[in-house]
Design goal:
Low-confidence stretches: 1-30
Largest sheet: none
CATH superfamily of the largest domain: DksA, coiled-coil domain
CATH topology of the largest domain: Four Helix Bundle (Hemerythrin (Met), subunit A)
CATH class of the largest domain: Mainly Alpha
Number of helices: 6
Order of helices and strands: HHHHHH
Number of strands: 0
Strand content: under 5%
Shape: flat
Length: 158
């Protein structure tokens, strides 16, 4: 075990352990909320898929147009390569978001969606609307980001 992973585990050990899965009574009480959150996730997933399809369609039509146009000079080719790289990055980001939403939908089915994985409190709907695949409440996410920042600083000093 490295010093980095040890220090992270020591700090994480001071944070409350994740709670047990919600009980059936709590899960039953959350059904209306769960249905609302599921609809929100499905709508967000639909939007992301639409963005992906538009980006792919735009990319394909641009490629077809470029084949019809005259042979590009070095500057034009560099610009085209840059645009392709940007489009690929955007597609990868959208696809990662879709994957995260798919994982969140699985957590909905398991009854774990909308519950902070660190402290067990309900994640606010405002946060879930902003980040639909959030696994932590704002407070726990801030702690996690602080831990990551500390690790990065340790890596830079070693």
């Amino acid at each position: 075990m490295t010093a980095k992973s040890r220090s992270r585990q020591e700090v994480k050990g001071k944070i409350k352990a994740p709670p047990a899965k919600p009980t059936k009574t709590k899960a039953t009480a959350l059904n209306p909320r769960r249905d609302t959150l599921r609809k929100m996730l499905l709508e967000r997933r639909r939007q992301v898929l639409k963005e992906i399809e538009e980006l792919i369609g735009h990319r394909l039509s641009d490629d077809a147009q470029n084949r019809v146009d005259s042979v590009p000079d070095v500057g034009d080719q560099a610009l085209l390569d840059s645009q392709r790289g940007r489009d690929i990055s955007i597609l990868e980001m959208r696809n990662r978001m879709r994957q995260n939403i798919d994982e969140a939908l699985i957590r909905v089915d398991e009854g774990a969606y909308g519950i902070c994985s660190d402290c067990g409190v309900e994640i606010s709907e405002k946060r879930l609307k902003a980040v639909p695949f959030a696994r932590r409440c704002v407070s726990c996410q801030a702690k996690e980001e602080l831990l990551e920042k500390i690790e990065q600083e340790e890596d830079q000093t070693t």
